[in-house]
Write a structure and sequence with these properties.
alpha/beta; eight-stranded mixed sheet; 17 helices
Length: 461
Amino acid sequence: MIALWIALGLVAVAVLATGTVGYVRSSRRQQGAGSHPQTARRRARGTATSPPATTRPATPATPPLPPSTPGARPASPASEASQEEPVERGARLEVAIGVEEGVPVIESVAPVLEVAPVLEVAPVLEEAPVLEVAPPTLRERLGRTRGVFAGLRSLRGKGVDPATWDELEESLLRADVGVTTTDALLDDLRRRVRDKEIGNGDQLVEALRGDLVDLLSIEQRWDGATDAELASGGGAAPGADFEVVEPVERGLRFDDAESVVNVWLFVGVNGVGKTTTVGKVARQQVAAGRSVLLAAGDTFRAAAGEQLAMWAERVGAEIVRGAEGGDPSAVVFDAVQRAAARGNSLVLADTAGRLHTKVNLVEELKKIRRVAERPPGRVTEVLLVLDATTGQNGLVQARQFTEAVEVSGVVLTKLDGTAKGGIVVAIQRELGLPVKLVGLGEGADDLVPFDPTGFVGALLG
């Protein structure tokens, strides 16, 4: 009896399992007939590009493979569609999948092109206009020397008393105007106070301003004194036979004759900035439209030729160099000859620094000048480069170089970095040499023509 019940239970379980499997298969067929959501969406769009999954068309016979591609796989419908309509790179693909007899089937593949975002074009920025930098002014760069004369500005609005003369003398000496020139200026001012021409501190400062401008604007020699007499104090005070020789020529001299090659020699002791001054003057002359050639006559200092070559490249000028330790006169001679052959109208000749006390070096400088004077060359300027920070020592240098090579003018460098700007007055007063250019900084445009009125105005305010 128990065995019978067990047999009946097994039969019931088998019948239930058979019914469940049949139900599942029937449900899958119904879904394959059109209940799949992807197929429903495709039909809703009306894109019946393939037969329903339940009526899958017979697969056509596979054509034989071409002999050149043995073993190639047949192309699927999706790949054929992609060959007919190439898909743009970067597009997204939409794939419709159906079910056929329980097996997923790809029904269609369609590219979905996404609209690229609109890129905003940045506005084109206009270039800012190039501002021309004005050359430095004496008032801007003479701060240290102006500070020395600050006490004189305190004299305004006061009377003239012994303390006034002490203040005035101290300011002039501290600015390195020199004892001789200071005594001459003070003697003239005292005389005018005695003659009632000056009655207060304001008039005294203005009278000093006028005397300094006049002294720097014209070549003055009192009592016909020589340089040695002036240096020793002789002939310092103006007397009845006060002599004004001629106005000072501060412009750089240039001979416009076509057959002449102008030569400007730059001389001075070591470390005053001769090579840099040559480069800055070349920049100015090229900008003025002149054809410039540089002569690297400093054959003794290491890297002097390289430094001048850099300036030549920067300003667009030609350069003639010699062998290190060679004869500087030969370099200057070659430069003049090449300038004549190539049509250059101006030769700027650098020379080696030399002590004014060395006789053999001074004689060599005389030889350079003689060689430079040979036709077609003509020495129109001999510029003595002085360091303003050396003060009265620069006056001694100027006197020695003037006797050797007939200096025609002075270039005073580093004037912005010293309180001894009064050396300008001493050079003009005691040697009669005009200061033609002054260096007010390290920039290429910081070498400017000397302006006596602006210089005195910067000092006295």
